[in-house]
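hey can u check if this looks right to u? its 477 residues, i copy pasted from the old doc so theres a chance i mangled smth
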Amino acid sequence: MNKLPDLWLYNTLTRKKERFEPLDPANVRLYVCGPTVYDYAHIGNARPIIVFDVLFRLLRHLYGPEHVTYARNITDVDDKINARAAKEGVSIEDVTGRTTEQFHKDIAALGVLEPTVEPRATDHIEEMKALIEQLIERGHAYVADGHVLFDVSSMADYGQLSKRPLDEMIAGARVEVASYKKNPTDFVLWKPSKTGEPSWASPAGITASGRPGWHIECSAMSAKHLGEVFDIHGGGIDLAFPHHENEVAQSRCAYGTDTMANIWMHNGFVQVEGEKMSKSLGNFITINDLLETEKFGGTRWHGSVLKMAMLMTHYTQPIDWTVERLNEVRKSLCNLIRFAERFSGEFESVALDHLVLEALLDDLNTSKAVARLHELTKAKTDVDAQIAAGLLSKSLRFLGVWDGEPADDIETFGRTLDTGQEARIEEQVQLRVKAIEEKNWAEADRIRDALLGEGIQLKDGKNPDTGARETKWEIKR
């Protein structure tokens, strides 16, 4: 067997880049925290989906698709879900069902692969209860006022992942301040259910029915599908504390292990037009807004453009999500695709470009990989261009930003004109036709160039039936 190239990943746990060594090369295991299904996923939620899709693709490339297990969960029991159902006067199942369906539809448009397994929290209640019982038995959890809480003081190195001072951790825990807690930082593993909320028979001898806390869900699901210790755990940087910190505490203390996952990876934040995304600021943008409405920039955006816009920044760095950025990405992506379309052979027969692969092996350096894609378009000869186009085609498909769709379709995606705009364009076209008939070439060129500046391209030709001269127009970027 040939030696695999080294893959280096930044580990939040150790605060350094490390060479990745799987626990079992025959079963490389990755867990990523998925959505809480109560509303449309916003553009910040899209980033980990895209980032860890690239990692999943890379691991499959290195170890073989059959040797990589990617688990991305669905949280379908949560206070936000309960509140949304109550507000809309519908069942919780209605909220979680349609929201999950919408999530799948939206991320499919982003060109991401389906995970190997997508566990739902409500299908793993028994595993959560067993884990809670184990924590109590080992002296790491206690029952108080119908709740089960994790005893942070029972874990000597709690806070190892986020490396936060105690006062910051206490501040972060204040949302759940309660008199029955032993310590301010103790967190809920199980809690009583209110009337109308989902409920299950409780663990730890509690007679009232209840439901799990948020953190215990991922510990139970990851253990079931990936094992007590696995290779990589990923998610957004906002999850590092308290969610991932508490996952680590639960899993390590329940199973008596030194770690939960060997490498922890976190992607950076996404802000919109230079500001933190917020409904109060009116800049809260969902994936569906970008794909299906004209809310952002007055147009809809192709999923490939959205994905490429994410990949142009290293995953650990923040992204400023702007209309200008998307316009630039659309133009550059279509230029890449037009070059790739020159390749006449079968792209599967071409190896992934070695410099693209080299960039991805260096902590998923997608920005460097994208820069390499543009270098491929600078081939000097037709032969070199043919080879480069093949490498480019393979690389674009590998990253999941192109599936063979014509560049023109991506470029014009979402651009619509109202009746008044179409009428004005038709009027300009007829004025140009008249100018041509009068041999007023300067005026004809002026009208053509003015329309092109608006993104309207004219095409002169002959009517196939009458042979008469005619001009057609189409939307371009």
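The longest strand covers residues 230-236.
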